[in-house]
Design a protein that fits this description.
Length: 257
């Protein structure tokens, strides 16, 4: 990390759903303005870990976090930290595109309006759509329903909706799994271009995608008690070509998972 400070850092993080431990002792530092991929077999806690980064697990009854998640050096689970503010500064894009049943413009303007950021709204919407590489495709249909867009366009609209609030971090949970190959490549290109200004953390099952888009990669797997653990974390190029742990090599080469 160029400035020595991670965008996000977990320290001895554990996540519990009631009496079930979903994550055990996760410690990792996510660098600024890079793409970090979280990989691993189904059920190992990838999405659960992603949701720890902006307190989305708070919305699940019985969920509790042990340990720390540091954002700009402060534990986001400390008393007095506003979870809603955290979610604006650390945006989330979900697996399935989920545009609101509103116009394209109103989808992007939703967050700023809710936060009373009504000044220069048209400029904010246009800027977010440009950043999401969608402006040229929708500039003449801003007042039409977002549900008329293609799946890939809807996902880029959801990214624009997150960008409109000027977040520092963007979390993406399998953002391409519902898209065709052409739309997937557009999202991947977008991730790489956004990484110049934003910290991006992506969960993906697709090893080729992780290799293509990410700078850092974290490999998770399940232990016998079904708790997810961090097996290995480091530069993607090293993880994919010279992993330190045999389990990482076995997963990346398709021997399990």
């Amino acid at each position: 990390m160029a400035d020595g400070v991670a965008a996000l850092e977990t320290r001895n993080l554990e996540l519990w759903y009631g009496g079930f431990r979903a994550l055990r002792d996760i410690s990792m530092a996510i660098p600024r303005t890079q793409v970090t991929a979280i990989i691993g077999p189904s059920g190992c806690g990838k999405s659960s870990l992603l949701r720890c980064f902006n307190r989305m697990n708070d919305l699940i009854p019985g969920a509790r976090v042990v340990g720390e998640v540091l954002f700009d050096g402060r534990n986001i689970y400390d008393a007095g930290v506003d979870a809603t503010e955290i979610r604006y500064r650390i945006g989330m894009v979900f697996q399935k595109p989920n545009p609101f049943p509103k116009s394209v413009f109103d989808n992007v303007a939703f967050g700023p309006r809710v936060n009373g950021m009504d000044d220069n709204l048209e400029e904010m919407v246009e800027r977010a759509l440009h950043r999401a590489a969608l402006w040229d495709e929708v500039k003449d249909r801003l007042r039409r329903s977002a549900t008329e867009l293609s799946g890939g366009q809807q996902q880029r609209l959801c990214i624009a909706r997150a960008l409109a609030l000027e977040p520092e971090v963007i979390l993406m949970d399998e953002p391409c799994s519902a898209l065709d190959p052409a739309a997937t490549l557009k999202i991947e290109d977008l991730m790489r271009s956004l990484a110049g200004d934003y910290t991006i953390v992506i969960v993906t099952h697709n090893m080729q995608q992780a290799a293509r888009v990410s700078d850092m990669a974290a490999f998770l797997m399940m232990e016998e008690d079904r708790a997810g653990i961090l097996v290995e974390y480091g530069p993607t190029s090293r993880l994919f070509t010279n992993p330190k742990d045999k389990r990482t090599e076995d997963y990346i080469t398709g021997r399990f998972g």
